[in-house]
Amino acid sequence: MGRENHQIPSSDIENNNIPKIVIPPSSQSRNDNTIHPVSIDTPSAANTPSSHQQMMFSKPFKSWFPWLIPSFVVINVVLFFITMSINNCPKNSTSCIGGFLGRFSFQPFKENPLLGPTSDSLDKMGALEVNKVVHGGEGWRLFTCMWLHAGVFHILANMLSLLFIGIRLEQEFGFVRIGMLYIIAGLGGSLLSALFIRSSISVGASGALFGLLGGMLSELITNWTIYANKFAALLTLVVIIAINLAVGILPHVDNFAHIGGFVSGFLVGFVFLMRPQFGWVNQRNVPHRIAAASSAKTKHNTYQYVLWVTALILLIVGFTVGLVLLFRGFDGNKHCSWCHYMSCIPTKRWSCNNDPVTCMSSQSLNQLNLTCSNNGKTNIYQMSNATDSQIRQLCAQLCG
After folding, report:
1. Domain covering 67-278+298-343, topology
2. Are the C-beta atoms of residues 368 and 383 closer than 8 Å to each other?
3. Which residues pair with 381 in a beta bridge?
4. Which percentage of the chain shows pLDDT scores above 90?
């Protein structure tokens, strides 16, 4: 999966996918890399509970029906179709891919290799554009950008990741907690992105998706005592997160959104995904005489409360400071000379130049003259009454 970082006006984007991690709340310990709650010590034979009570021991947590995550997928897909309809490539561009799709056809690969709309269309729909957030009073873009996608490949990768990760989490923790985790993580990704990505727009759900991964990691840590095979599961999860963050150093991928979403989701996980101890749950589900025979259990461990309070404080302080800095026009790159390497590392194969492209244009009868201000290239196009969208598309091709 990938949070997409759009050049204005070009739309070159990269994205990647996230494998599936299954963390079932089973009480049996197996010799594999999935993690399972450890088995609960049962009372002596004289006090053995009935089969119904034994079932309560092995499955102490409620399983929820997942409907919110599929709803999120539907919302993302519907908004993508609306974006493509507004884009209307045949009307606003000189060439399109999939012309038989009519107004839903795609921009040329050179402009958008992910089969999607122009950056102008994404901007109209609410893409994250810092100047409009800070100087235009459009703070709502911090929220709307996480529901938009740059192309078919982009939305396909993100929605598959959302289904694989999100449905399992919603089954275990319910729609309220996972919904809050998803939204807060997405906002955290947008906020960090806005503090560092200044010259291009950004769209995508990957900040929220990384938040779900961060929540999975903190859930494993805060509920550490109830899981078996915990070290193998921790190593697997850390490797997956590291690989996906590493992919974010490719050009045109907004890794700041990934990092912000992950950190936000990691902290939210300590607040929303804390489970009670098995012993406390089982004491409530067995007859009084059996519960009295075992030692009394508190609902949560002390370290869980410490993590809960610490994470909540860091979340409140982090979002407050971030929002204040953003609306004061803070540019993170001016105060951190190396931070841009967290989002893109230049190599011989690619450049990390994110400067917006501009062109000088003049219309003479049926001829449009364009000169790219970035590389000095000039070209003449046989067309009259060119629209602004057509000029921006031709400019992107000339400067590309």
Report:
1. Rhomboid-like fold (1.20.1540)
2. yes
3. 368
4. 44
| Other beta carbons less than 10 A from residue 285's beta carbon | 15
Can you tell me the distance from the alpha carbon of 272 to that of 314, in angstroms, rounded to the nearest whole number?
Answer: 14
| Phi, psi dihedrals of residue 350, rounded to the nearest 5° | -150, 160
Residue 51 pLDDT level (bands cut at 50, 70, 90): very low
* AA identity, residue 201: I
pLDDT band at 295 (very low <50, low <70, confident <90, very high): low
Question: What is the residue extent of each domain of the chain?
Answer: 67-278+298-343, 359-399
- The neighbour count for residue 252, using CB atoms within 10 Å, is 23
Q: What is the pLDDT of residue 157?
A: 92
Using DSSP's 3-state secondary structure scheme, residue 378 falls into strand
Q: How far is CA 206 from CA 23, 62, 194, in A?
A: 21, 28, 15
Query: What's the rounded Cα separation, in Å, for the pair 47 and 146?
Result: 54
**Does the N-terminal peptide bond of residue 9 adopt cis geometry, omega within 30 degrees of 0?**
yes
Mean pLDDT computed over every residue of the chain: 80
Q: Which residues are catalytic?
A: 206, 258
Kindly give the residue spans of alpha helices, DSSP state H, lying in the chain. 51-58, 68-87, 89-92, 119-125, 130-134, 141-144, 152-173, 175-196, 206-222, 230-247, 255-272, 278-285, 288-293, 302-327, 332-335, 388-399
Q: Tens digits of per-residue pLDDT, 7-28?
A: 544 444 344 444 444 444 443 4
**CA 392/CA 400 separation, integer angstroms:** 12
What count of other Cβ atoms lies within 10 Å of the Cβ of residue 379?
Answer: 14
HEC sequence for 41-59: CCCCHHHCCCHHHHHHHHC
Contact 107, 116 (CB under 8 A): yes
Nearest to 210 by CA among 232, 188, 193: 188
pTM of the model: 0.76
pLDDT digits (tens, 9 = 90+) for 319-376: 999 999 999 999 988 888 888 888 878 877 766 766 566 777 777 777 788 787 767 7
Q: What is the pLDDT of residues 239-266, one digit of tens each?
A: 988 888 888 777 778 899 999 999 999 9
Q: Which residue has the tokens 């996230």?
A: 18
- Do residues 318 and 187 make contact, with C-beta atoms less than 8 angstroms apart? no
Strand partners of residue 382? 367
Q: How many residues does the chain have?
A: 400
